[in-house]
Amino acid sequence: MVRTYKVENDKDKILAEEVVVMEYRAPGTETFTSISEKGSGFVRHHVFQRLMKDEEKRVRVNKDPDSLITPANYTLKVVGMDRIGSSDCFVVHAIPKRKETDLFEGTIWIDSQDFAIVKITGQLAKSPSFWIKRVDFVRDYQKIDGFWFLSREEAVSAVRIFGKETLTIDYRNYIVNGLGALHSLLMNEARGVTAVATKAVDSHPLRGRLRQPRKAWDLLSPT
Length: 223
Prior knowledge:
The chain has 223 residues and is an alpha+beta fold. 20% of the residues lie in helices and 47% in strands.
């Protein structure tokens, strides 16, 4: 899979950009290979490389942000239905039970047929750095050959002294080399979303009328 990392300032000027190939091997190994880069070496080293290294660590210890979306970590409530693209979605409000950088407060759209995450918007429950006052983010997903994958992430940070900066990560050219690897990659996310949808719908006052569901956080820190 190919990713494009990009950081822009509040004047829409691109500060840095890097394109990498990411390869996942079950059960918990990711490797990143840079194929092009431009702009600030500081941003590429302290933002892009940090994000990749943090992701490698999370995969090894099974702490992907989506896998943490469970009733153990969030108070969840269905607030309605919505349509995104061709997906009819449950709209779930998520409130974190702890102030941690891996958790967020926001809204989750869950496909009512596949029970997969279609979109997440929110803000980090805790800033990853003193220098960052607030981080707002959007995560969009796409369905490829029956499976849901990330398509784009955008995170806007209010950085002390420097102002607003925007990080985007675009995902493309997914290639699946075997169903076993794919199953392992998606299993934890599927478990987490099942728990989210089930818990949220169970607590909804219109539960009897709803069908029962069965799918870049640390950034822009100068340190």
